[in-house]
Amino acid sequence: MNTPDAAGVSDAAGVPDAAGVPAAGAPAAILIGPPGAGKSTVGPLLAARLGTGFTDTDAEVEATAGKPVSDIFVEDGEPAFRELERAAVVRALAGTAGVVAVGGGAVLDPQTQARLAGHPVVYLETGFAAAARRVGLSQARPLLIGNPRATLKILLDQRISVYRRLATITVGTDDREPAEIAAEIARRLAAP
């Protein structure tokens, strides 16, 4: 178990000290959850509350590939996207002292799961109805092409147990404002 030293500093695994501050160079929080959970919306708000930066691994993948995630899926295929995603997660966890939002499917990768261990992982828990409303069941979500409602339901069913297992904090997001969610996460990160 990682415990803070007399100065309240945690070890290099990124476990926050008593004030909720992670070890130098470790993420302050890693947000996980399904499409529509609010990772990209809550993340910057949480980062602002914590006085730190925000990294969205999907945005990092897009910057690396020079095209949107949906185009990567169509033009290069899901395996190519998952490899880019895995590399983006590795970079974010190694070089980000702020808040990191990880793509909804990234947690299915065993290497990514192992890398999340020892970090403050926040699962933004979202029910099917709220997730469907938030994503708008749009075709811009590459894994929701075809029958988006059925596909979203399948994704949730496949991933929920993984999200719950990896999470050190779970925060419900249904019918809540992003600022309220960010405030709860910040409060829980700082709790002893």
Query: What is the strand arrangement across the widest sheet?
Result: 2-3-1-4-5
Q: Report mean pLDDT, rounded to a whole number.
A: 81
Give the strand content: 5-15%
Structural class: alpha/beta
Q: If helices are DSSP runs of H or I spanning 4 or more residues, what is the number of helices? A: 8
Largest sheet: 5 strands, parallel
Shape verdict: globular
CATH topology: Rossmann fold
Q: Helix share of residues?
A: 40-55%
Evaluate the radius of gyration. 16 Å
SSE string: EHEHHHEHEHHEH
Which residues sit in consecutive blocks of at least 5 with pLDDT less than 50?
A: 1-23
Distance between the termini: 14 Å
CATH C-level class: Alpha Beta
CATH architecture: 3-Layer(aba) Sandwich
Work out the count of structural domains.
1
CATH superfamily: P-loop containing nucleotide triphosphate hydrolases
Q: How many E-type strands?
A: 5
